[in-house]
């Protein structure tokens, strides 16, 4: 009996030890994917803020330790630029809400990648980086696309439904961002990143339109028609200058010569032959 009492706690601990990994294994993929999504959102937000901050302050660098929302919230390295500080705080709060886009409704790989890429099209993201030069905006977006690609490679798709099941149940699954809060409006302060020597506070009441930073310009039929008409006009002008005008000038010169030959003899000045001898004037002298 005493041996049984001694073995019972050991048996209980073994049961708990074997049961816990099995239970954790059944819930690990969803929880791990959610943590991966949140971690990727923090990394995207950090890269975005780091790029804008380093462009605004040529002598300071955004600390590499600011990888979380709370750490960035406590950061106060903006000097006297209150407008830029307010912009960073507003975007830090808005970007934290990106985490709510995944974890409700569909949680498969396609939804995971879709919600991460939607961050790069969010109007708050567009407004936050719109004062960067175009080449730097393109470089930032491409770098963040690589981060998203790396995160999708780490995604655990063992619990994802089959493609035919997703197609059949797609209408019944609520969108992942159905309960998400609407995006915040742009701050009143001008977020333009400037050197420290040129910092001034301005106000603005509008936000730029949603657009992709590296999207190529679209041309419609009117643009091509305008280009065709311009090319036609150029060729026509060259034909007139090189062909028509010289031919017209040659014709005018020929017509002038014909008119000169057809003039009456009276109008022509008398021409004296150089070979004729002078007339005799002896009779007049006598």
From TrEMBL:
Start-end of Basic and acidic residues biased regions: 261-270
The organism of origin for this protein: Hymenobacter daecheongensis DSM 21074
Region of interest (Disordered), residue spans: 153-211, 259-286
Protein name: Uncharacterized protein
Lineage top rank: taxon: Bacteria
Record's keyword terms, sorted: Signal
Signal peptide: 1-24
Biased composition (Low complexity): 168-183, 197-211
